[in-house]
Write a structure and sequence with these properties.
The chain is α+β, with helices and mostly antiparallel strands. It contains five helices and seven strands, in the order βαββαβααβαββ. The model has no long low-confidence stretch (mean pLDDT 97). The protein binds the ligand C[C@@H](N)C(=O)N[C@H](C)C(=O)O and zinc ion.
């Protein structure tokens, strides 16, 4: 059977705002699973048009102050979520634990709200993102097999990211990644609040457990969990 296609109002973010940086982690092995996730066929950010236009408005404000948004994940097919569930059931596979969930038991990742079996990402208006100071510093490529460092280690020790210091890396499944965790203070808290305040004024809602996770509201598809692959081919509007 042929792959499902996206409704007409799904777009590649780059066609709405080519200046937003994209580092699509689930297309790469640098994520909590340790391999490319099912359904990510191309490293592109796909979103509903209203969500992409909301990010474009946020980006215009940030660019004026010398910052850019950077997305790590956008629309996520249901088959990718199913891959996360299969991975979570395999308790022997802790390949990436030392970086992404050093202190949370693998059996708790869904119950504690870090990963969802029905994810807002599959509805197309949810994304994971951060802020980068321009000009963006080059980043070191991820090399599978190199020793991993906890995502909540100080910025100079954890995996290098050219983003502002948010107190933890992306997809750090730990209470320290809760957006308003009281242990995160000073510049790190200010950076989280810059992201939160910029996006909330434009209609985005944050997930309290993850400083990087936002949903644009109102969502055009509040009850539909899509499964078309992340690929240009899935989209009608290709530029
Ligand atoms: C897996 C992480 N990036 C994420 O998006 N978590 C939320 C809870 C989700 O899976 O929707
Ligand atoms: Zn997310």
């Amino acid at each position: 059977t042929p792959d499902p296609r996206a409704p007409k109002d799904f777009v590649a973010l780059s066609t709405v705002d080519p200046t937003i940086i994209q580092e699509m982690r689930y297309f790469t092995p640098h994520n909590f699973v340790g391999e490319r996730v099912d359904g990510y066929r191309q490293p592109i950010c796909v979103l509903t048009r209203p969500a992409a236009e909301g990010l474009h408005r946020a980006q215009r404000q940030l660019l004026r102050h010398g910052y850019s948004l950077k997305v790590y994940d956008c629309y996520r097919p249901q088959r990718a979520v199913d891959h996360f569930v299969r991975w979570a059931e395999d308790l022997d596979d802790e390949t990436m634990k030392a970086e992404f969930y050093p202190e949370v038991d693998k059996t708790r990742l869904f119950a504690d709200g870090y990963i969802a079996e029905r994810s807002g990402h599959s509805r197309g208006s949810t994304m994971d993102l951060t802020i980068v100071r321009l000009p963006a510093r080059p980043t070191r490529p991820y090399t599978p097999g190199r020793p991993l460092v906890p995502c909540f280690a100080p910025e100079r020790e954890r995996f290098p990211d050219n983003s502002l210091d948010m107190g933890t890396g992306f997809d750090c499944f730990d209470p320290l990644a809760h957006t308003l965790d009281p242990r995160v203070q000073g510049q790190q808290r200010a950076n989280r609040l810059l992201l939160k305040n910029t996006l909330e004024k434009l209609g985005f809602v944050n997930l309290a457990e993850e400083w990087w996770h936002y949903t644009y509201k109102p969502e055009p598809y509040p009850d539909t969990y899509f499964d078309f692959p992340v690929a240009w081919k899935s989209l009608s509007a290709r530029r």
